[in-house]
Design a protein that fits this description.
This protein is α+β, with helices and mostly antiparallel strands. The chain is built from four helices and six strands; from the N terminus they run ααββαββββα.
């Protein structure tokens, strides 16, 4: 069955929501994170969480890392009127600092986000998300200098992706 122009626009909006979700994680941007979900969304991890519990858990989990980096691969979206189903493949890296649990290392997760999307009031957001972790690994971090003199990003709105966008 051929996709309509409206279906293609909806698909693009849904894919954009997931990319914003990844950015919200990596920049610890709670406002951006909230904009990806309907207020009554359900997020299934090891248990089902409402949006407030999910945001609180995310703050706690992400605080243990010095940097995170979410990368999106394949994205399949099937639109049916004002609802849609989406599957987003992801590889996410999480830098753990050296400490009591060992040397600096990266926790890398390979997984998928399975979403039920709904368009309400003309706006697409996630109504239900199931996170599937297909496999993980831990990698040691060898000593190195920052390449090309980059100072690296920031885990907040002082990151260059925000400041360059706004001219700051």
């Amino acid at each position: 069955m051929a996709k309509t122009t409206e279906d293609l626009l909806a698909e693009a909006e849904i894919k954009d929501i997931h990319i914003r979700y990844c950015r919200a994680n990596d920049r610890l941007d709670e406002e951006l994170m909230r904009s990806c979900f309907h207020p009554d969304a359900v997020i299934a991890l090891h248990e089902e969480l409402d949006l407030e519990a999910f945001i609180a858990l995310g703050k706690k989990m992400l605080a243990q890392y010095t940097v995170t980096w979410h990368n999106t691969g394949n994205q399949l979206v099937e639109v049916d009127g004002d609802s849609a189903w989406a599957e987003h493949y992801t590889i996410s890296s999480h830098r753990l600092p050296a400490g009591d649990k060992g040397p600096e290392r990266d926790f890398v997760a390979y997984g998928r986000y399975l979403d039920r999307m709904e368009r309400r009031g003309g706006e697409w957001r996630i109504a239900r998300r199931t996170m599937v972790v297909d496999y993980t690994r831990f990698d040691p971090v060898p000593p190195s200098d920052s390449p090309f003199g980059s100072r690296g990003g920031a885990r907040d709105r002082s990151d260059p992706s925000y400041t360059l966008k706004t001219g700051g």
